[in-house]
Amino acid sequence: MGASVIELENVAYSYGGTELFSNLSLSLPQGSFHFLTGPSGAGKTTLLKLCYGELHATRGEVRLFDKPAQQMDRDAVASVRRRIGVVHQDCQFLDHLTVTENVALPLKVAGRESEGEGDIGDLLAWVGLSRQSQQTPPQLSGGERQRAALARAVIMSPDVIIADEPTGNVDWDMSQRLLSLLIELNRMGKAVLIATHDLNLIRAAKSQVSSRVLRLKGGQIQQAGADL
Amino acid sequence: MIDRLRPVLALIKGDPQADRAVPPTGFTARLTVFTAGAMAFLAVFALALSFATGRVADRWAEELARTSTLRISAPEGQAAAQLATAITVLETTPGIAEARALTADEQRALLEPWFGPDLPIETLPIPQLIEIIEEGEGYDTTGLRARLQAEVPGAVLDDHTRWRAPLVDAAERLRALGWLVLLLIGAATAAMITLAAQSALSANAQVIRVMRLVGAKDTYIARAFVRRFTVRALIGAAMGVFAALALVLLMPDSEVAGGFLTGLRFRGVEWIWPLLVPLLAAIVAFAATRHAAFRTLREQS
Ligand SMILES: Nc1ncnc2c1ncn2[C@@H]1O[C@H](COP(=O)(O)OP(=O)(O)O)[C@@H](O)[C@H]1O
Ligand SMILES: [Mg+2]
C-alpha cells in the first residue's frame, strides 16, 4: 500500500459542547478499504466530514493529500473535493435536475463537462440507472438514489470514495450490489471508506476484499478483530 | 487588465449549466425586473429635470447677465432730450455694446399681456425703455448710476442682478438636487437588488451545499446568481428607460414664458445619459449581487 491520502493525527472535534472524540488518529493509505462502524451518534458522520474538509478539527491535524486541512481556504477545499468522491448520508441532490445532470454536476462545476459526456451513459449503466437517467431524484427509490449518489461520487475519477451509510435504507440485495460496486472501485486502486452500522455488510465484504474495520465508540477508535 | 476582464467576459458568455444548477427564482426575478424598471424610469426623469433646470440656469445666467434696462420718466418737454443724452452716456460707457430705445410698438407689446391690444400708448405717460446689451465683463453699475444721476435725472437703471442671482441660484440647486436624486436612485437600486439576491441565496442554501459537496468554488456558485440578477436588472432598466423616453417624447417641447421653463427633452449629447441607465443598472446589480453572494457564501461555509 502506498502513501496516505487522508491522515488524522490526535484529532478532536466538538460541536460546541463536550468533545465528540479526542486524540483520534487514522490513516487511509492509497488503495485501502476501510469500514467505520460504531453505535448511532458515535460520530461516524462527523469523522467522515473531517475527512473531506466539510468540518475542521477543533484540535489536532487533518491532512488531505499531504496538505493540512486547517490551512485550506474554501477554494482549496473545493479542489480537494474533486479528488474525494462523497456519497452523503442523505444523498444531497439538486432535485430540479435530472439524474444525468446531477451525476454530471461535479464535472460541470470543475469546468470539465466536455470530458465526461460519453462516460455518463456508461456510468449510469454500471450502477443500473440507464432507464432512470431523465428522472429527477425525488422520483427515485432509496436504492436508486444511493446508486446515483455513487455514480456522482466517482464521475471525477477520484482517489478516494467516502460513503456514509450507503446501504442505510435499501434491502439486502441492493446493499450487496452497492458493496460490489465499491469493491470494484477499490480494485481500480481507489481508497474506500464506508461508514456503516450494518455488520452483515462488513461480514459479506470480508470474503471479497481485504478490509479493515475501525470501531468508533466512546470517543475512541479501535481496530475491530475477528470477533466481528 | 485581461485578468480583470475575465469575470466580466465569463459573465457575458454565461454558463447555462451554472444557471440551471440554481433553480428558477420566479418571485425575486420579477421583483428585480420591476425594481430596476421603476428605478430606471425615475432616473430618466431625474436626468431630464436635471438637464432642463441646468439649461434654465445657464440661460438665465447668460441672458439676464448680458442685458439690462434703463427707464426714463421725464416731463413731457424733456423726454426727447433726456433720451438722447441717455443714449450718448450709455454708448460711451465701457462694457456696453449697444443701447437701443424701444419703439412704441415694442413697448405696446410688452404691456399687451396686462392691458390688452390697442393701448393708446402715445397718450399715456409711459416711461421710455432703453435696452442695454453688454459686452465683455459688463459695465460698472455704480459708476453708470452716478453719471446718469448727474446727466439724466429721470433715468432709473434696472440691471436685473437684484432678482437674477437668487433665480440662477435656485436653478443651480435644482440641478444639483437632480444629481443627488440620481445617486439616491442608484443606492436604492443597489439596496433592493442586494436584498433580492440575498433572499435568493438563502432560499438556495441547500443548492449551495450540494454544489460545494461536489467541489464547486465560490466564484462558480456566485456567478449563477450574479449573472441572473445582472441580466434581470439590464432588462428591467431597459424597459423602464424605454417607457420613460416614450413619455418624455410625448411631452410638449415648447419653451414656456420666454425660456422660463424649457422642454424636458434631451438635447444632443444628453441623449447618451438615458441610454447609459440600463448599463449603469446592470453594473450596480452586478456589484450588489456579487458582494451579497460572496458574503453569503463566506457566512455559509
Ligand atoms: N451540526 C451538529 N450540531 C450539533 N451536534 C451535532 C451536529 N451534527 C451531529 N451532532 C451530534 O454529534 C453526535 C455525532 O453525530 P454523527 O457524527 O452524525 O454520529 P453517527 O454518524 O455516528 O450517527 C450526535 O450526538 C449528534 O447529535
Ligand atoms: Mg451518521
Describe the secondary structure blueprint for this structure.
The complex is a heterodimer of chains A (228) and B (301).
Chain A: E1 4-13, E2 21-29, E3 33-37, H1 44-51, E4 59-64, E5 67-68, H2 74-81, E6 84-87, H3 99-109, H4 117-126, H5 142-154, E7 160-164, H6 172-187, E8 191-195, H7 199-206, E9 212-217, E10 220-223
Parallel strand pairs in A: 3-8, 3-9, 6-7, 7-8
Antiparallel strand pairs in A: 1-2, 1-4, 4-5, 9-10
Chain B: H1 2-13, H2 16-21, H3 26-66, E1 67-72, H4 79-91, E2 96-101, H5 104-115, E3 128-134, H6 141-151, E4 155-158, H7 161-203, H8 205-213, H9 218-250, H10 272-299
Antiparallel strand pairs in B: 1-3, 1-4, 2-3
The complex binds adenosine-5'-diphosphate and magnesium ion.
Magnesium ion is lined by residues 44-45, 89, 164 of chain A.
Q: Could you walk me through the main structural features you see in this protein, from its secondary elements to its overall organization?
A:
The complex is a heterodimer of chains A (228) and B (301). The model of chain A has no long low-confidence stretch (mean pLDDT 89). The radius of gyration of chain A is 17 Å and the shape is globular. Chain A has helices at 44-51, 74-81, 99-109, 117-126, 142-154, 172-187, 199-206, and strands spanning 4-13, 21-29, 33-37, 59-64, 67-68, 84-87, 160-164, 191-195, 212-217, 220-223. In chain A, the strands form two sheets. A six-stranded mixed beta sheet of chain A has the order 6-7-8-3-9-10, sandwiched between helices. Chain A has a four-stranded antiparallel beta sheet with strand order 2-1-4-5, with helices on one face. Chain A has two domains: 1-83 and 159-171 and 189-228, 3-Layer(aba) Sandwich (Rossmann fold), CATH 3.40.50.300; 93-157, no CATH class. With 228 residues, chain A is an alpha/beta fold. Chain B is an alpha+beta fold. Chain B folds into two domains: 2-61 and 168-300, no CATH class; 74-153, no CATH class. Helix content of chain B is 69%, strand content 8%. Chain B has ten helices and four strands. Chain B has helices at residues 2-13, 16-21, 26-66, 79-91, 104-115, 141-151, 161-203, 205-213, 218-250, 272-299; strands spanning 67-72, 96-101, 128-134, 155-158. A four-stranded antiparallel beta sheet of chain B has the order 2-3-1-4. The two termini of chain B are 30 Å apart. The A-B interface holds A 54, 74-75, 78-82, 86, 88, 92-94, 96-97, 101, 105-106, 108-111, 113, 152, 156 and B 17-18, 20-21, 23, 206-207, 209-218, 220, 297, 301. The structure holds adenosine-5'-diphosphate (ADP) and magnesium ion. Adenosine-5'-diphosphate (ADP) binds next to helix 1 of chain A. Residues 44-45, 89, 164 of chain A line the site of magnesium ion.
